[in-house]
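Budget justification aside, the reviewers requested a transparent look at the raw inputs and outputs of the sequence design task funded under Objective 1. We therefore reproduce one unedited record. The lines immediately below are the structure tokens for a 228-residue chain.
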């Protein structure tokens, strides 16, 4: 079976291979919360999105000022062909379809997913949580580094209210912004009619199931759903 692969040609981590599998949407940009983190100041925090449909891959620019280029042409959306060269800022990456066993890092890999234990900040109290525990991790914004293990109850509210399970400082976030519900082995996120909306993997949503590696944007804050 073939999978997508991005090889960094120019810029930080040149030569690194990033495998695009297991997910259907991959966000790329400078923010550490992206599935594909491009460590270059010329790259936007959220620069482009790659969508997978079977073995077909498409790329979308995320409204960046400097644009996303494929084979030298600025694009808003285009299907990726074998050997296509993508440019984001000063970085260049080559897209290829490769064998599933090709060595490389998974775009969806969480940096600490192989840790036996993780430190979690829950309501201001530092606790231990197993790496297999479904957890919200703030990866970008004023509360970067905060963690909320989704254990002990079935509903978790996110927002600026002091009663929120994950209280966030971002002024663009509503007091009661969204809620995550646990139902058997599934977690579902619901927007609570927030002023600026809840964005999941680049798309504004009302209600949606969560998958490992999903990125939730509330205002200027990026939160990752980890479930190992």
């Amino acid at each position: 079976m073939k999978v997508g692969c991005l090889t960094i040609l120019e810029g930080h981590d040149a030569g690194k291979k990033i495998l695009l599998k297991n997910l259907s949407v991959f966000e790329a940009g400078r923010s550490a919360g992206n599935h594909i983190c491009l460590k270059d100041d010329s790259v936007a925090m959220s620069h482009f999105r790659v969508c997978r449909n079977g073995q077909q891959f498409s790329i979308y620019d995320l409204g960046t000022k400097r644009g996303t280029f494929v084979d030298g042409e600025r694009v808003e959306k285009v299907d990726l062909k074998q050997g296509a060269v993508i440019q984001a800022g000063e970085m260049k990456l080559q897209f290829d379809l490769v064998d599933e066993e090709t060595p490389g890092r998974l775009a969806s890999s969480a940096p600490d997913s192989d840790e036996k234990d993780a430190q979690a900040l829950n309501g201001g109290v530092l606790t231990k949580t197993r790496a297999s525990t479904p957890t919200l991790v703030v990866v970008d914004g004023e509360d970067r580094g905060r963690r909320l293990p989704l254990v002990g109850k079935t509903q978790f509210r996110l927002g600026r209210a002091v009663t929120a399970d994950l209280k966030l400082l971002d002024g663009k976030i509503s007091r009661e912004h969204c809620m995550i519900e646990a139902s058997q082995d599934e977690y579902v996120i619901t927007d609570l009619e927030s002023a600026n909306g809840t964005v999941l993997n680049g798309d504004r949503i009302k209600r949606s199931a969560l998958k490992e590696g999903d990125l939730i944007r509330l205002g200027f804050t990026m939160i990752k759903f980890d479930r190992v």
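The chain has two domains: 2-99, 134-227. Confidence is low (pLDDT under 50) at residues 109-131. Computational costs for records of this kind are itemized in the attached budget.
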